[in-house]
Amino acid sequence: MLIDWFTIIAQLINFLILVWLLKRFLYKPILHAIDERETQIAGKISNAETIELNAKKESDELQAKIKEIDDQRATLLAKAATKAETERERLLEEAKKEIAFFTEKRRKDFKREEKDINKRIIQQMQNEVFAIIRKVLLDLAGTKLESQIVDAFIQRLSELDEDKNNFIKSLPSSSNSLDQGIIRSTTQLTLKQRKAIEDAISENFNIKSELQFEIVPDLFSGIEFIMNGQKLAWSIEDYLASLETKVHDFLNPEKLAP
Amino acid sequence: MDLSPDSIIYWKYGFFKINATIAMTWGLMFVLTIGSKLIVRNLSTEINRSRWQNLLEIIVTKIEKQIEEIGLSDSKKYIGFLGTLFLFIAVSSICIIIPGFEPPTGSLSTTVALALCVFVAVPLFGIEEQGVRVYLKSYTQPTVIMLPFNIISEISRTLALAVRLFGNMMSGTMIVGILLSITPLFFPILMTLLGLLTGMVQAYIFSVLAAVYIAAATRVRKLEPIAKSNVKGAKS
User: A22, B32: Cβ pair inside 8 Å?
Assistant: First the structure.
């Protein structure tokens, strides 16, 4: 007999038990694991998408920031360039001013020094000229230079025209209120010379008051009459002026060059 | 030569007995259950998993997909029954390569038992899905005259299931047995390989047919409203 009913029943039960066992130990755990994995993968994909979105957003923000920084840098560079140019111009201007200042100062110093040297040369020349003239006059004419100067001064007082008129005009009308006139000379004048000068002044300017005589060694070997802020003088300065010019030209030959 | 492993009886007490069919089934049940339990013990829900787990997942997902393709949308509900049918028949067919193993599916008792399971399961799933009345009414479709034919169809297809599986499995074993006595060396190995193929095909056919029957039983209600609305539309 091919069919055994007990075996059929037993196999039925066996099969149902196997169905339960496999459900319990195979399908449920495996399907659960698959489902869980799918959920996890879905979650990971979702997270990845979120992260990607965030990354894209951050990337966009960074790009925008980089652009902003670039713009700022360009603006700052332009500003800095402008400022640097301004500063350069300012410094250049300052440097030019300083150069001009120092050049001018040097020029002035040089002028002053030149003037001092000229003055010393002239002083020395005057002294030398005076010494020579004094010796020549004494040797040839037997007269002293100082007496010749007094004579020349008196002679000049009488020859004054316009200067004399101006001098008289400056004097006050009342002679009583007159200041005392001063005669300055390099050497001591003799009484005779003093008298001659007083007479000449009285005659020329109509002044009666007594004169005061002073000795001024630094005076350019001449004689001065000072009164009421006005001065009349004779010295060899004028004679020396041409000599000074010639000496000056000699010391600065480049000025003569065409 | 034994035509069926039922005739190999290890122990008998009155009506009760333990024959090779039952013993081999227990062996298969043990192997399947313990194997599953061992693999499932360290299940990983991460992307990295063991090769055995991977194998089981492939088998289970393929069965699930096959059930879905046949038309049973809620495949998780049917995988217990249909999957076990397939695995039991497939494993018992594969095990014929083990010397001394008698496939339990080579016994008509086993195939009848499995066919009876399908015979009961189909109306059970059908009734669960659409209720007793609608399911029973499906036997009178399209007319009441068809009722006996439908019932005969149910029985005959169950019988066909049982006999088809038994015939194929038994014939394989029989052919190997006969060839062993004629050409004992090389040819039986080829026939065993052919038997493996036939066994796998039979496992597939049996479970797919069961799935088709269940799908047919559960799908009636879904088609019903469409048919009714079509009739109303035609009347108006």
Answer: yes
Query: How much is the pLDDT for B231?
Result: 47
**One-letter amino acid of B123:** P
Note whether A78 and A123 are same-domain residues: yes
Indicate whether A24 belongs to any domain: no
Residue A147, φ and ψ in degrees, nearest 5: -65, -35
- B104: its two tokens: 């339990």
Domain shared by A148 and A137, yes or no = no
For chain B, the structural domain boundaries read 5-235
| Final residue of a structural domain among A142, A167, A193 | A142
Q: What angle do CA A59, A63, A69 make, to 5 degrees?
A: 140
* Mean predicted lDDT score pLDDT of chain B: 85
What percent of chain A lies above the pLDDT cut of 90? Answer: 36
Number of domains in chain A: 2
CA distance B139 to B136: 6
Domain extent, residue A207, equals 144-255
Chain B 34-63, residues with CB within 8 Å of chain A CB atoms = 36-37, 40, 43-47, 53, 56-57, 60-61
Same domain membership, residue A205 and residue A102: no
Chain A residues closer than 8 Å to B22 by CB: 7, 10-11, 14
Domain shared by A153 and A229, yes or no? yes
Task: List pLDDT tens digits, range A108-164.
Answer: 999 899 888 878 887 787 778 778 877 888 888 777 777 788 888 888 877 877 666
Give me the interface pTM, i.e. the ipTM: 0.87
Residues A135 and A148 in one domain: no
Backbone angles phi, psi at A230, to 5 degrees: -105, 150
CB contact under 8 A, B45 and A33: yes
DSSP B97: G
User: What is the residue type of B129?
Assistant: E
Partner A contacted by B29 (CB < 8 A): yes
Amino acid at A143: T
Which of A18, A31, A36 faces B29 most closely, judged by CB atoms? A18
**pLDDT tens-digit profile of B147-156?**
889 889 888 9
